[in-house]
Design goal:
By secondary structure, the protein is an alpha+beta fold. It has ten helices and 14 strands. The strands form four sheets. It has a five-stranded mixed beta sheet with strand order 4-3-5-14-6, covered by helices on one side. Strands 8-11-7-12 form a four-stranded mixed beta sheet. The two termini are 58 Å apart.
């Protein structure tokens, strides 16, 4: 099998010699020398144990075995051209299924709203969003790209920063009017707070302001592990919610929510930079390249 594979270049040269009509003409087309081309054909004849060409001073003539071999070599070269055509088409035209994993809040509130426009622009690409806070294995689970909050791409993955993820506290004007507005992190202990609740640490809110730091254990009657639910709870006046900035942005702009302790940085395990992560490859599929460019472009244009 190795010998057969190794002989493929010699087969291609043999076919070129036949088409060119001479070793010297084939050598000019291949950027080689007549002696090198002659040696490749002779090597192929030795491996096949048949004479392919009758060599005369005037011209080359195919033997019966050479004629049969030439037909097969032509078919091999045609198949190679078809493979290159497939590769060129894949590189040029985005198509196929794209599987993308991301955290729940980012998927629902950041990426999902962009997908109708993407699907309209790229009709040959299908998209499967896998919305989970679980850390997925891109290789084992055949996932093309994952959005993950991290400091840098982990080993084996390439990446591109997508957006900063900042968390804040917000409450409705009605709630703050009734219960008062906290002035210090410690004041939160007397309020109803809406927090994640997946881990005991989630109810211990941490803050930083310059050289100061603070931590307070909060409580509340309504706990939810989805930021959109906490957002709706805050809008309904149920308390002070811990929210990603992107989730609260529109409600804050409309005045439906007010920030709380805005001069303090709200520290969580879910804050940082959201990265686009994908298998480390030299050549990315067209469907993945255009998805990345589209999402980055849309988020950049939206500020």
């Amino acid at each position: 099998m190795n010998m057969q594979i190794d002989s493929l270049p010699d087969m291609a040269v043999f076919a070129r010699v036949v088409e060119a009509g001479s070793f010297s003409a084939a050598a000019r087309q291949l950027g080689s020398t007549p002696s090198a081309v002659s040696r490749q054909v002779a090597r192929l004849e030795g491996q096949l144990r048949v004479r392919l060409l009758e060599r005369t001073t005037r011209k080359l003539r195919l033997t019966e075995a050479g004629s049969a071999a030439y037909g097969r070599c032509q078919a091999m070269l045609a198949a190679a051209r078809e493979v290159w055509a497939l590769a060129d088409a894949d590189a040029a035209t985005p198509r196929g299924l794209l599987r993308v994993s991301m955290p729940k809040a980012v998927g629902r509130q950041v990426i999902h709203p962009l997908m109708a426009g993407f699907l309209a622009q790229y009709p040959e690409v299908d998209v499967q969003l896998i919305i989970t806070d679980r850390t997925v294995d891109l290789y084992q689970e055949a996932i093309d790209l994952a959005i993950r909050i991290t400091d840098a791409p982990p080993p084996g993955l390439a990446g591109r920063p997508l957006m900063p993820i900042r968390h804040l506290l917000a409450a409705s004007p009605a709630y703050l009017a009734a219960k008062g507005t906290p002035q210090q992190p410690r004041d939160l202990a007397a309020h109803s707070c809406l927090y994640l609740g997946e881990d005991e640490r989630d109810r211990h809110w941490r803050f930083r302001r310059g050289n100061e730091s603070a931590e307070v254990a909060v409580r509340g009657r309504y706990v939810a592990n989805h930021s959109e639910v906490r957002l709706e709870g805050a809008l309904a006046g149920l308390g002070i919610a811990s929210l990603p900035e992107f989730a609260a942005r529109n409600a804050l702009a409309r005045g439906e929510l007010h920030t709380v302790l805005a001069d303090w940085e709200h520290l969580t395990d879910y804050a940082g930079t959201a990265w686009l992560l994908y298998p480390s490859k030299r050549f990315l599929p067209a469907k993945l390249r255009v998805w990345i460019d589209y999402v980055v472009g849309q988020l950049g244009s939206s500020g």
